[in-house]
Design a protein that fits this description.
By secondary structure, the protein is an all-alpha fold. The chain has 18 helices and no strands. It has helices at residues 3-18, 23-36, 40-63, 70-91, 95-110, 113-121, 129-158, 160-167, 172-180, 197-200, 203-237, 245-270, 272-292, 298-311, 316-326, 332-360, 367-381, 383-393. Helix 12 packs antiparallel against helix 13 and helix 13 (272-292) packs antiparallel against helix 18 (383-393).
């Protein structure tokens, strides 16, 4: 496989790898929080265990791609992620066991997502990177949407355990693709395995990395709690609510794919820093508007959620392609490792802090609690333009950096 065929195959494999991704937030409101006696903060902590496992493992696994063929790590990570998801369905029986197993699933995904991106970029021509990376990262959203859909439908029909078992089969697709890839030897290693000092000195790359952290905080805060939020909207308005939680969670996730592609196209034309900052500022405004309108018309909330579904992911492809383009080729694996470590580490905080805000403001049945929750998300994404300004102040030309083809 090469060229477009490789990009398409990797996007399809990524969708398979992401089928387990949203099972916990998809089923926890209706199937886990009540039976297991969890608080909202504990439920957010359980969902965040995936991101925490990812954060711990990704520095090692992604950096290893500078020393070995990334396809080998991609194969092992995909299989581990699927097996851990199946184990959750078979063995989890409370908060502690759920967190441990879901953390292992996150470790597996750490060997699949960024190593998958490295396996892809190692096999692309020099002019193919920006749009190909954006297609790969935007397929993330399609996979999450299918994960929400499949998880909720299976759980409602046959129980939450089978939702984990069946979605855990999805990563097999990427494992097969990894086996079919032509081996590519990595360049000779430079420096020590976990030496991130060259990355930290790259101020342009660090701007994108920290901006990605702000993006992930908002994204995972929203993804973890969107089912609970729309359950609140339905409970308040009943039959007047235009969509149910399954439909809204899938629609929000699926809209993310074209939004990310469109955001990258805008960045190619006007510059990454300018486009990303504008998107993140708009996203903060929309988040606050949703929080303020939480107790009002479900049709107004649906419109605001549609806009939010576009603003939240629209910066993702530009942030990742900007990071890759600004990385020193000798340390691209290490740069991807730090990018993903920051992103998923902050993701774990997002799900937990939004849950803690809900608890502190009265719980998921109160409109004021949802205002607090969306204010937390808005505060997180507002950090993005600040770190991009910081990175630009050290390199006056970086704000006009454009994406290639």
């Amino acid at each position: 496989m090469r060229g477009r065929a490789l990009v398409v195959a990797m996007c399809l494999g990524q969708v398979g790898n992401l089928l387990p991704h949203a099972v916990v937030p998809a089923v926890m409101v209706g199937h886990l929080i009540g039976p297991w006696g969890l608080s909202n903060a504990e439920a957010g902590l359980m969902a965040s265990a995936y991101a925490a496992g990812y954060m711990v493992a990704v520095p090692v696994l992604s950096t290893l791609t500078d020393r070995m063929d990334a396809r080998q790590i991609l194969l092992a990570g995909s299989l581990m992620s699927g097996l851990a998801t199946i184990a959750f369905g078979l063995l989890a029986d409370g908060l502690v066991s759920a967190m441990v197993i879901w953390c292992v699933a996150g470790i597996g995904f750490a060997g699949a997502y960024m190593p998958g991106l490295k396996a892809l970029t190692d096999r692309l021509g020099p002019g193919d990177s920006s749009r190909s990376i954006t297609f790969y990262t935007s397929s993330f959203s399609l996979g999450v949407g299918l994960s929400f859909l499949a998880s909720q439908l299976i759980a409602d029909a046959w129980g939450w355990r089978l939702a984990f078992i069946l979605t855990g089969l999805g990563p097999t697709a990427m494992a097969i693709i990894a086996l079919l890839m032509k081996p590519v030897p990595p360049p000779p290693p430079s420096g020590k395995l976990l030496d991130f000092r060259p990355v930290l000195r790259n101020r342009t790359a660090m701007g994108y990395i920290l901006g990605y952290g702000a993006h992930c905080f908002e994204l995972y805060g929203m993804r973890t709690w969107i089912v609970a939020f729309w359950t609140f909207v339905m409970a308040r308005h009943g039959a007047a609510t235009p969509l149910d939680p399954i439909a809204i969670s899938v629609a929000v996730a699926v809209l993310a794919m074209p939004a990310s592609i469109l955001g990258n196209e805008v960045a190619i034309r006007i510059g990454r820093h300018r486009a990303i900052s504008a998107i993140q500022l708009l996203s903060a405004v929309v988040a606050l508007a949703i929080g303020l309108a939480a107790g009002t018309s479900p049709w107004l909330l649906l419109g605001l959620m549609a806009i939010y579904a576009i603003t939240v992911p629209a910066d993702s492809g530009s942030l990742t392609s900007g990071m890759s383009a600004s990385a020193d080729p000798r340390y691209r694996g290490a740069t991807m490792a730090l990018h993903s470590t920051v992103g998923f580490g902050v993701s774990a905080l997002g799900g937990w802090l939004v849950g803690a805000a809900l608890d502190a403001a009265g719980g998921t049945g109160e409109a004021t609690a949802w205002l607090a929750a969306f204010a937390v998300m808005a505060g997180g994404i507002l950090c993005g333009p600040l770190v991009l300004w910081w990175s630009r102040s050290g390199n006056p030309r970086s704000h006009d950096a454009r994406g290639g083809n």
